[in-house]
Specification:
The chain has 10 helices and 6 strands; from the N terminus they run E-H-H-H-H-H-E-H-E-H-H-E-H-E-E-H. The protein is an alpha/beta fold. It has a 6-stranded parallel sheet, sandwiched between helices. The protein starts with a strand and ends in a 9-residue tail after the last helix.
Length: 225
Amino acid sequence: MTIQYAVLFDMDGTLLQTEKLATPAFLRTFDDLRKQQLWDGRTPTESELTNVLGMTLEDLWKTLLPDANHEVKLVADRLMLKHELDLLKEGITDLYPGVREVLRELKSKDISLFVASNGLEKYIDAVCEHFGLKAVFTDLYSAGRFQTKSKNDLVRQLINDYGIQQAVMVGDRRSDVEAGKANQLLTIGCDFGFAKPGELEQADQIITQFDQLITHLPFPVLHTT
C-alpha cells in the first residue's frame, strides 16, 4: 500500500482543547490515589499538569509521580483514562475552532489523515468517536497502541506501514516538530496549544489558529484552480 499525500496530527493541544479535559482528570486521579493510599505527595499545579501533555506516559508519570513504583503508575494510567472518558461524556471540552471543517476539506481532496499521538489507544479512539472524526482518519496511531518509546518512532512506523510518499506533521509541542524532522517531514507548529515561548521555533511553519493550516500545506491538489 502506498499513499501519496498525508497529514499527521497530534491530538492534545492540536485538535482537542485538552486542557479543559486533562486538568480535572488529573485532579480526580490524584484524589483517587490518595484515597487508595497510593500517593501522599502534593497535587501538581495546573501549569505543571499542562507541561506534561504530549509526553509519553512513561515520561509523564515519571515527572508527576517521581517516587512512585511501576504498579502505582499503572493504577494512575487506569484512573486517568477513566476520568478522561467520563469527562468527555460530560461534554467538558471540544475541538479547536475550524478542526471539523478543515479535516473534512482535506479528506475531500483525497489527502489521507492520521492521528499520531503519545496517548493511550482507548483515549484517542474515544475522542475521535465522541466528535465524529473516525470517518475522516485513515488510521489512529498512538504510543499506547504500538508501545513506542518516542513520537519519532511512532511517526516512522506510520510512514513505513502505509508507504507514505509526502507528509506533513502538525502538532503543538517540540516533540511533534522533532518527530517530523527526524522523519524528513514538513512540520507545522500549532501556537494555540501548550507550547511554551520558543518551543516551536524549529517548525517550518507556525499557525495561530487551526483554519490557517490549509494555506501552509504543500500538496498541489489543494492549490489547483
